[in-house]
């Protein structure tokens, strides 16, 4: 049966197939011309067809090539890119979690999303690391944007950070804005979420409003942080990101 093959090398690059008519797709075939070196992970069906994730070894035939997962966003149809994220997270999980953190014995695959210890029987599931990202606005025309040190391009994005143990996500939102900018916020509202497989995050998007304080940039993480008017926006992150979805939504509101 024809199957979508989500295949990764040890650098976590994914195999894509160049189509004769231009563009790329995930290899879709009964069998595949590459050497599978891992167990096969069964993914949810895609477009009504089976989908599998594997690790591979060796050379690819000329019709296939490797792509960074992030770069595959601009090459693949969106549903294939989206499924590739889940495939990458599961392959990383099954490849990297080899020994039990409790007793040190080997772990083996139990289900497609879990592993079990061959010694003590402890079972673990593919982890998800939640992170928040928040658009803070002031009045109706101003938005708080920050340039992080780790951004690949010189654009301005939103305040973001990981959820810490023992806190609610609303507390994370308040804490991150306070830590990075020194500002107090109010009216925190959940927007939507997005799996972010770099390597296993779940991005939770929020809107919030400025309450009080002066911007004090946290210099370890940020190069700059300031208010921008909606009519004079700097370069902002690309369409794929939750930051951009929040900004596009906010920019579509009353002008
Ligand atoms: Zn164990």
Description:
- By secondary structure, the chain is of the alpha+beta class.
- It has three domains: 94 residues, Nucleoside Triphosphate Pyrophosphohydrolase; 30 residues, no CATH class; 124 residues, Nucleoside Triphosphate Pyrophosphohydrolase (Alpha-Beta Complex).
- The chain has four helices and 17 strands.
- Strands 12, 13, 14, 15, 16 and 17 form a six-stranded mixed β-sheet that branches.
- β12 and β13 form a beta hairpin.
- The longest helix is centred in the middle third of the chain and has 19 residues.
- The model has no long low-confidence stretch (mean pLDDT 94).
- Zinc ion binds next to loops.
Which ions and ligands are bound to the chains? zinc ion
Q: What's the CATH C level of the largest domain?
A: Alpha Beta
Order of helices and strands: EEEEEEEEHHEEEEEEHEEEH
Major sheet: 6 strands, mixed
pLDDT < 50 runs, ≥5 residues: none
CATH architecture of the largest domain: Alpha-Beta Complex
Number of domains: 3
Tell me roughly what share of residues is in helical segments: 10-25%
Q: What is the approximate shape? A: globular
CATH-defined topology of the largest domain: Nucleoside Triphosphate Pyrophosphohydrolase
The overall pLDDT average reads 94
From the structure above, extract its key features.
five-stranded mixed sheet; 255 residues; alpha+beta; 17 strands; Nucleoside Triphosphate Pyrophosphohydrolase; binds zinc ion; 4 helices
């Amino acid at each position: 049966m024809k199957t979508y093959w989500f295949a990764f090398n040890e650098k976590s690059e994914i195999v894509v197939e160049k189509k004769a008519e231009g563009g790329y797709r995930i290899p879709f075939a009964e069998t595949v011309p590459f050497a599978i070196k891992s167990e096969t992970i069964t993914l949810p069906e895609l477009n009504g067809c089976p989908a599998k994730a594997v690790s591979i070894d060796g050379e690819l035939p000329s019709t296939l090539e490797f792509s960074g997962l992030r770069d595959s966003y601009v090459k693949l149809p969106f549903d294939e890119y989206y499924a590739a994220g889940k495939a990458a997270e599961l392959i990383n999980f099954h490849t990297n979690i080899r020994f039990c953190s409790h007793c040190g014995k080997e772990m083996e695959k139990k289900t497609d999303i879990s592993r079990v210890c061959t010694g003590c029987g402890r079972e673990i599931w593919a982890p998800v690391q939640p992170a928040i990202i928040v658009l803070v606005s002031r009045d109706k025309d101003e938005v708080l944007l920050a340039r992080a040190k780790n951004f690949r391009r010189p654009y301005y994005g939103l305040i973001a950070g990981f959820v810490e143990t023992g806190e609610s996500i609303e507390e994370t939102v308040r804490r991150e804005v306070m830590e990075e900018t020194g500002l107090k916020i109010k009216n925190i509202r959940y927007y939507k979420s997005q799996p972010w497989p770099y390597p296993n995050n779940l991005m939770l998007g929020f809107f919030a409003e400025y309450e009080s304080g002066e911007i004090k940039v946290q210099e370890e993480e940020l190069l700059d942080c300031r208010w921008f008017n909606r009519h004079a926006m700097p370069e902002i992150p690309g369409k794929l990101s939750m930051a951009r979805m929040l900004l596009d939504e906010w920019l579509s509101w009353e002008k």
